[in-house]
TrEMBL record:
InterPro entries: DUF4238. This is DUF4238 domain-containing protein. Pfam families: DUF4238. It comes from the Bacteria. It comes from Flagellimonas aequoris.
Amino acid sequence: MPKNEPIKQHYIPRSYLKNFGVEGKNGNYFVDAYKLEDEFLLEYISTKSICFKKNLYTIPNAEVDKKYALELHYAEHVDSEFPKIYALLVDEKTIVLTPEQKRQVLYVCLSLYFRTPKVLNHQNAFTDQILDRMLLYADANGDVKFSFEEEKYEFNKKDIDKVRHEFKERNRLKFIVNHLERWKEFVDFKYDCTINVHQINDANAPLITCDNPLSIRGMNSTRFEGLFNPDSVITLPLDTKYYLEIFPNNIADGQTRINRMVHDRDYVFTTNAIIQSNAEKLIIGKPGTIERHFEIQSSYEEDDNAERFVEKAKFKLEEMQKFHKLCETSGFPSEKATAQLKTMLAHEHFKNENQLLQLKRLLIVLGKWK
């Protein structure tokens, strides 16, 4: 096999994982990884050794110059592009993107949802269950006959390992084709979104990531409510300090604007909880940050802290919902929306909300802030 055949294929780019690691020798980066199934912490391991699967994107029965086309596409158009996208998003001086930059942000970041093997793993588990059940109906000779997805299958139970492999290869081919189509379609669908970048102001409350870092959930819930739900919120930790958020544009502040906000430990608590719930097998972070994550989670389980957090989160959500509703019904700017904005900014829970402060400055320029 030629040395340049890339059979070890990372579904989470190393150019992304390095932002949660420390640099070692020869440009290698090292992270801590917590195995959820074993509840075991792997310390200081290379990003080369995690979040990959052999031949995940290799196209079967293709010529050598084509069989690795998808892996090479990811390497050229996503993995090598991520550092540029990351630099744009965490640069606090960057307020407005060009249309081309915005599309590239979406193309690169949304790929982290479609290219992971989560859906493929679920499909493989499903077909394994079907095959296990069909084995129970083998005849006296061990022959198995059944229909699945409008196709008929016949095999002898002694060949089950070969049949399982064939099913998994079929599932993998569907994954390759379907995720590319849905990826492009989803980028087009989300182009009119709002892009927010959140900065954490507490150095002792670091963000973590995982082997399935991009989360899609309903705006008012932590549940997946459909890929093309127009009200879905998409989130992605960018490093230990910055967090990307994508959702529909409810306030007319310009389609290519980046809204920048500052958050505290409460935000890290909820954000890291979402990351952990979204993980398939691994939680990933800079050395020492995963232990810190669990310490923060434990502290919020204490009665006083839990009650305070819930009250604060409930208050902020209700006030923001009031503001968004007024913007939709009365318009922005309007007297009612402006009054609600003043009420929020006067409260200590909103004192570091840069997005609200930017709206205040906009209203001052427009002569609407009195």
